[in-house]
Each structure stands twice: as structure tokens, then as C-alpha cells.
Design a protein that fits this description.
Length: 234
């Protein structure tokens, strides 16, 4: 007896991602189906936003459906689209992100601060590395970084990964034992805290963190929908 896999539809993917992203936390944001479609999906594209050759890309790749992080001002397409904005950022970029924590080899995860019941970041322990060794690892993971600010605190054994940067957050990370503060962008308001606490800092770059999130999403979807072909822009 030959058993065939059931077809995949846009609503199937949207239901899975809405559960994974816990979209009830973002009731006033874009979550789920953006352009509906009843078409069965074999090839599914992932992109952060439309660009000048976006429509041609969807046609050349013979896509049946698409995920967008920022669907605003998108051109007309003849395929279904799902979109997640804040939920994607908080779940798959810099913040409390267990998938990223695994890649960074962090253990004993703890929440670092909360806003409106949502974690802003995570703290975790790692095997001791020199600062340069750990920066090399970050560059490998994110294809580079924007800025590296070393300190004189020695090896890295406890890491803070935070989706924001304020004076208070930097000081909390240091008080809770972090040797390095990883975030998207350097904020001038937090520079004094870096100097006074002596904590190291690496800013990955907002775009790089989103691109990592998109690659992570591709793995997540392959794990859930084994027969789905995932296509990312080259």
C-alpha cells in the first residue's frame, strides 16, 4: 500500500506559525494570512520584504506561496502570502530565542527583563571562550557584525542576548553575571553603562539578525512540513 502525504495549504502554514509565534501577544499587529489562497503549496518562498525584482523572483522560482516579514507596499502577485511582523522579530531574532540560544550553545536560560509580559532578552551560560574566539563565532553565525566593543573583563562565560539596548538593560545584564551584551544596534543612551560596568558588547545589525531569523524559519518549516520546498532569495 502506497501512502501519500496530504497536500499543504497556506492556512496550514499560517496556523502552525501563529501557534509557534504565539501571536495572541501581538493582537494589533500583522499576523497570519495577508493574501489568501486555496492553492496547494509545494514551493514556498521566504523573504523579509519586497524589492525591485520581487515579482520576477516569485515567477522564476515558481512559488506557490510566500512568507514576508514586512509586506507593506508589495506589488501584485498571484500567490498567497502570509506575514508576521513583531512576532517574527521577538521569536526568531535577538531576544528570548531558544533556537538561537542552541546555536550560541547557551544553557540555563533566564529571561532578561520584560515589557508588557514579553521577554526582552535572554541570559545563559556558555563554555568559557576568549572574547576574540566568541566574536569569531558570532561572525560565523550572522555573516559578520556591525560593531565590537571589547572590555577588560577577560573570558566570556555568560551571555546576554537582547532585542533592545538601554542603560537599565546593560546594567541588569552585568549585575546578573553577563560578560557580553549582544544586541542589534548600539544606542548612545547606553554607552555610559557599557563604560561603567565594563561589559563587552557586540552589535549584530538589525538586518543581519532578521536574515538569521529567516534562515531559522526555513529550518523550522522544513522540520514541520517535510515535503515542502523552501526558497530564499540568493
Amino acid at each position: 500500500m502506497i501512502v501519500t502525504c496530504p497536500q499543504i495549504y497556506l492556512d496550514d502554514i499560517a496556523q502552525f506559525l501563529s501557534s509557534f509565534f504565539r501571536v495572541n501577544r501581538f493582537s494589533n499587529d500583522q499576523n497570519g494570512v495577508y493574501i489568501p489562497s486555496a492553492r496547494a503549496i509545494a514551493r514556498f518562498g521566504l523573504a523579509l520584504e519586497p524589492w525591485s525584482e520581487f515579482t520576477a523572483w516569485t515567477q522564476q522560482e515558481r512559488l506557490d506561496g510566500l512568507f514576508l516579514h514586512r509586506p507593506w507596499q508589495m506589488p501584485t502577485v498571484d500567490i498567497g502570502v502570509i506575514a508576521y511582523h513583531l512576532a517574527f522579530d521577538e521569536s526568531l531574532t535577538l531576544g528570548f530565542n531558544p533556537r538561537l540560544a542552541t546555536v550560541l550553545e547557551m544553557s540555563n536560560l533566564e529571561v532578561l527583563s520584560e515589557k508588557e509580559g514579553r521577554a526582552l532578552g535572554m541570559l545563559g551560560d556558555i563554555e568559557s571562550h576568549s572574547f576574540n574566539q566568541y566574536c569569531d563565532r558570532l561572525k560565523q553565525i550572522f555573516h559578520g557584525c556591525d560593531r565590537i566593543i571589547p572590555s577588560l573583563t577577560g573570558n566570556i562565560s555568560r551571555v546576554a542576548v537582547v532585542g533592545a539596548m538601554t542603560d537599565v538593560l546593560v546594567r541588569e545584564a552585568k549585575e546578573r553575571g553577563a560578560n557580553i551584551y549582544i544586541t542589534g544596534q548600539l544606542r548612545q543612551s547606553a554607552k555610559l553603562a557599557l563604560e561603567e560596568t565594563g561589559i563587552s558588547c557586540v552589535t549584530i545589525g538589525h538586518r543581519r539578525s532578521e536574515e538569521w531569523g529567516l534562515r531559522s524559519l526555513s529550518g523550522l518549516l522544513r522540520d514541520r512540513f517535510a515535503q515542502l520546498e523552501i526558497v530564499l532569495p540568493k
